[in-house]
Design a protein that fits this description.
With about 375 residues, this protein is α/β, with parallel strands linked by helices. About 45% of the residues lie in helices and about 20% in strands. It is flat. About 0% of the residues have low confidence.
């Protein structure tokens, strides 16, 4: 599985600049990796992972296929979006379809770029979007609670569960807390997810700073970092202008440019990694002479479900997984060396896949 991250932001915060850099980066990768522009506002980018290149080198893989991350440029956000202002309805519908939200915040001063609210206050900007999402959730919950009243009175167990969860979410929202702050038991997790509340989405705040502040951030980005931590979310510092410049350079020129700017890596790489951490995603690999490939799963995924990411038949007919930790694969010089050193393990259905595992699945067709 890849994952979809929606990019949102008020006007003139650098959202379009960042998305343009993303899509140009994706286009530049097209020579080496499968690339698909699904819609004008959707782009897929390869997830950077030097481990994949190392595995491919050891195995002599003819093709390298990285994991993919989809960015969705979600337009139409203005104050009042929850009531349909601007492109409010489209905006809210698009957010329901993503796994997480990358909220671009203006953390730079520039007299030539007017802020829609007439001031530069990224934390207040974050609250504007949060408020719109909370209002939309409240309206949705109130309507749905009315619609299931009859089923609840009739003793429908699932309706009773939904009512309980919706009331818990509504109570939090009325207190000014997003729905993701509601504690939900494991047995209710599936029903809770099916409510599709906007404020259950994790948020990654993208602090768009000036070029000279890209390495260390500034007071505005530090205020956002504190705000995000208090919410259980994350933040990352990026200069959209630098990312746009990097996206137009050849790979060898990019490293030189980054070094000149005092940066170890592109901000987009940091953004992707931050998104993985936020959503508790990990990577496992399949490696052979034909291809080396990265696969994305959530932490805690068991081997059969990890196999199912490749193909449903792998999960249905799962027998076992032959497993080599990345470090052992590299240290032993590949699969054969790992076997001879006793570093390959046979794991069953209860095995929880670890980040960096090199896996080979055996299954009944």
């Amino acid at each position: 599985m890849g994952f979809r991250m929606g990019i949102v932001g008020l006007p003139n915060v650098g959202k379009s600049t960042l998305f343009n850099a993303l899509t140009r980066t994706a286009a530049a990768q097209a020579a080496n990796f499968p690339f698909c522009t699904i819609e004008p506002n959707v782009g897929e980018v390869a997830v950077p992972d030097p481990r994949l290149d190392r595995l491919a080198e050891i195995a002599g893989s003819r093709e390298i296929i990285p994991a993919r991350m989809t960015f969705v440029d979600i337009a139409g956000l203005v104050k009042g979006a929850s009531k349909g202002e601007g492109l409010g309805n489209q905006f809210l519908a698009n957010i329901r379809e993503v796994d997480a939200i990358a909220h671009v915040l203006r953390c730079f001063e520039d007299g030539d770029v007017t802020h829609v609210e007439g001031r530069v206050d990224p934390v207040e900007d974050a609250r504007i979007i949060e408020t719109e999402l909370m209002l939309a959730d409240m309206e949705s919950l109130e309507k749905r609670l009315q619609n299931i009243t009859r089923k609840v009175r009739g003793g429908d167990k699932e309706a009773i569960r939904q009512e309980r969860l919706m009331k818990a979410a509504l109570a939090a929202l009325e207190e000014g807390r997003p729905a993701r702050m509601v504690e939900v038991d494991d047995e209710d997790a599936k029903a809770w997810k099916n409510l599709q509340l906007l404020t259950t989405k994790k948020v990654l705040y993208v602090c768009n700073v000036g070029e000279e502040e890209a390495a260390i951030g500034n007071e505005l980005s530090r205020a956002v970092e504190e705000f995000a931590a208090a919410e259980g979310n994350a933040s990352v510092v990026i200069s959209a202008r630098i990312e746009e410049e990097i996206s137009q350079l050849e790979p060898e020129e990019q490293q030189m440019f980054l070094a000149e700017m005092g940066l170890e890596e592109a901000g987009l790489d940091r953004l992707i990694r931050a998104g993985y951490r936020l959503l508790h995603l990990i990577t496992y690999f399949t490696v052979g002479p034909k291809e080396a490939r990265a696969w994305t799963i959530r932490e805690g995924t068991l081997a059969p479900q990890a196999a199912g990411v490749i193909h449903g038949d792998f999960e249905r007919g799962f027998i076992r997984a032959e497993t080599i930790a990345y470090e052992n694969y590299v240290a032993c010089g590949g699969e054969q060396g790992a076997k001879e050193a006793g570093k390959m393990r046979a794991e069953g259905k209860s095995y929880m896949v670890q980040d960096g595992d090199v896996l080979h699945f055996l299954f009944n067709a």
